[in-house]
């Protein structure tokens, strides 16, 4: 059975509290020395002070927390997160106290695996202005007690949600600040789409903070373009404090409108897809659409995405045909197969810019410098363990994996070896194509838990024409899957 790092850390902390007390053996003042500062003032950027974390070798064990916080302040940061967990992150409550005393006007978030009312009181006395509540570690009753205690002290509880169950646990509180971590705290892998999935379940007004996995300007644009209110960044700013300045400029309300518009243009596809996230089944993309009759049917049956082939194939369609599909309200993705260094054609760029296509699926030898410029994602054909391993380094929010064939770039009806599928699923969110059909869809979904399935030949009467009975059987069988996403 896989180790749950989250529970391991929480249990270790509980033992330490029993031995040394909730204050980590420090002498705290009997009353708070400094006034509480408003947390998460504009810009919506939280930079973190930490020395290490479990999934990475040490970041900087010699880090001076006060100096690090000072570099953030110099770059315009007004909210700082301080890791106070000792064993796995190398932090301490003393770090928080030292930073707050040096910068009393800066709002400080205590980030730790807090478990009791005493933890909240200790955080307050130590000078924290906000504190993290990890909903998955707390019962609904304990979450409410700690949340309301923090409010009574004038602090800002940041409630971190990792699942649908967490959302249901927290919704009675209607927390004003919600954090959604792209890092899975059970195994510390990153899924950049996790915050979008969890956000789709939230039905109350709040500010939502996208946490973890932010390392490049592309990542920043993704968070901004998908409409999150704020971002919390750790390792990247510890390693390069100037990255904090880039964050401030990106989330500054006075930044040029065209910057925001460009981010929305590049990443609006993800927003539209995840707005209608269904916890009972994966997203369904039906690819190889060539006529209005099939498009109408897949829309009526509940497909999330329609795919149009714009490369050499028996299913290839013209740009003009895609323009004539504008009356069908479904997400539309164009599939291209480009050579290395080959740019996207002007005709396809026009489809994107005019809204006839929502995104592009890049299925060739495109370089990241090309496919990261546009709304969309990369498709990778998996031949062996090396290819499966390399999926983890393909940039972008998601990667679609398909079966390898020396004869075609896709649409072959071949399945990927199950061991390779599982290896990819360990690395990142699983988007799966290849050999999926009505007869095996339940087995595939239950075994591999893909977040998106992409089907073309498995529901065809012949290349380019869908079989209505197969499509109906596919969606009927999907209703029999036994897992929640």
Q: Name the CATH architecture of the largest domain.
A: Alpha-Beta Barrel
Q: In what range is the share of β-strand residues?
A: 15-25%
- Major sheet size, sense and barrel closure: 8 strands, parallel, barrel
- Helix count equals 19
CATH class of the largest domain: Alpha Beta
**Total individual domains:** 2
Q: Percent helix among the residues?
A: 25-40%
The CATH homology group name of the largest domain: Aldolase class I
Which value, in Å, is the CA radius of gyration? 24 Å
The structure class reads alpha/beta
Rounded average pLDDT: 93
Number of strands: 18
Question: Low-confidence stretches at least 5 residues in length (pLDDT < 50)?
Answer: none
Defining key terms:
single chain; 485 residues; alpha/beta; TIM Barrel; 2 domains; eight-stranded parallel beta barrel; eight-stranded parallel barrel; 19 helices; 18 strands; 36% helix; elongated
Write a short abstract of this structure:
With 485 residues, the protein is an alpha/beta fold.
Reconstruct the topology from this structure.
Elements: H1 5-20, E1 45-49, H2 65-74, E2 79-83, H3 93-102, E3 107-111, H4 117-126, E4 130-134, H5 140-152, E5 156-161, H6 164-170, E6 177-181, H7 194-199, E7 207-211, H8 217-225, E8 230-233, H9 235-239, H10 242-251, H11 257-275, E9 283-286, H12 292-301, E10 305-309, H13 319-323, E11 331-336, H14 346-353, E12 359-362, H15 368-371, E13 376-382, H16 385-390, E14 399-403, H17 418-427, E15 430-433, H18 441-448, E16 452-455, E17 460-462, E18 465-466, H19 468-478
Parallel strand pairs: 1-2, 1-8, 2-3, 3-4, 4-5, 5-6, 6-7, 7-8, 9-10, 9-16, 10-11, 11-12, 12-13, 13-14, 14-15, 15-16
Antiparallel strand pairs: 17-18
């Amino acid at each position: 059975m896989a180790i749950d790092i989250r529970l391991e850390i929480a249990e270790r902390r509980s033992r330490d509290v029993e031995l040394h007390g909730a204050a980590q053996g420090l002498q705290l003042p009997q009353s708070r020395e400094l006034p509480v500062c408003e947390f998460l003032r504009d810009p919506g950027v939280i930079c973190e002070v930490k020395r290490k974390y479990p999934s990475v070798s040490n970041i900087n064990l010699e880090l001076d927390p006060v100096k690090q916080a000072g570099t953030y302040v110099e770059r315009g940061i007004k909210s700082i997160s301080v890791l106070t967990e000792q064993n796995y992150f190398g932090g301490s409550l003393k770090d928080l106290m030292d930073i707050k005393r040096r910068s009393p006007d800066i709002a400080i978030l205590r980030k730790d695996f807090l478990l009791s009312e005493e933890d909240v009181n200790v955080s307050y006395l130590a000078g924290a202005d906000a504190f993290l509540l990890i909903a998955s570690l707390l019962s609904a009753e304990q979450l409410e007690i700690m949340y309301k205690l923090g409010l009574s002290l004038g602090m800002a509880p940041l409630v971190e949600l990792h699942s649908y169950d967490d959302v249901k646990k927290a919704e009675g509180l209607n927390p004003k600040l919600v954090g959604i971590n792209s890092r899975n705290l059970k195994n510390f892998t990153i899924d950049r789409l996790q915050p979008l999935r969890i956000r789709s379940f939230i039905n109350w007004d709040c500010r939502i903070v996208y946490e973890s996995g932010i390392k490049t300007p592309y990542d920043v644009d993704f968070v901004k373009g998908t409409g999150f209110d704020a971002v919390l960044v750790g390792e990247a700013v510890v390693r390069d404090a100037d990255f904090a300045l880039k964050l401030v400029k990106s989330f500054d309300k006075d930044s040029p409108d065209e910057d925001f518009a460009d981010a929305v243009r590049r990443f609006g596809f993800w927003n539209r897809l995840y707005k209608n996230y269904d916890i009972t089944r994966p997203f369904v993309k039906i690819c190889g659409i060539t006529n209005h009759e099939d498009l109408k049917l897949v829309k009526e049956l509940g497909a999330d995405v329609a795919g149009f082939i714009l490369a050499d194939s028996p299913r290839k369609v013209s740009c003009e045909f895609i323009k004539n599909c504008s009356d069908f309200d479904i997400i539309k993705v164009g599939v291209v197969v480009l050579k290395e260094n080959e740019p996207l054609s002007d005709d396809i760029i026009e489809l994107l810019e005019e809204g006839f296509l929502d995104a592009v699926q890049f299925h060739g030898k495109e370089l990241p410098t090309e496919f990261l410029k546009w709304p969309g994602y990369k498709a990778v054909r998996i031949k062996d363990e090396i290819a499966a391993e390399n999926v983890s380094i393909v940039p972008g929010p998601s990667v679609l994996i398909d079966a390898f064939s020396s004869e075609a770039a896709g649409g072959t009806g071949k399945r990927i070896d199950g061991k390779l599928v599982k290896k990819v699923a360990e690395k990142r969110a699983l988007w799966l194509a290849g050999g999926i059909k009505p007869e095996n869809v339940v087995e595939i979904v239950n075994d591999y838990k893909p977040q998106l399935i992409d089907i073309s030949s498995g529901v065809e009467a012949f290349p380019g024409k869908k079989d209505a009975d197969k499509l109906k059987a596919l969606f009927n069988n999907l209703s029999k899957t036994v897992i929640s996403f």
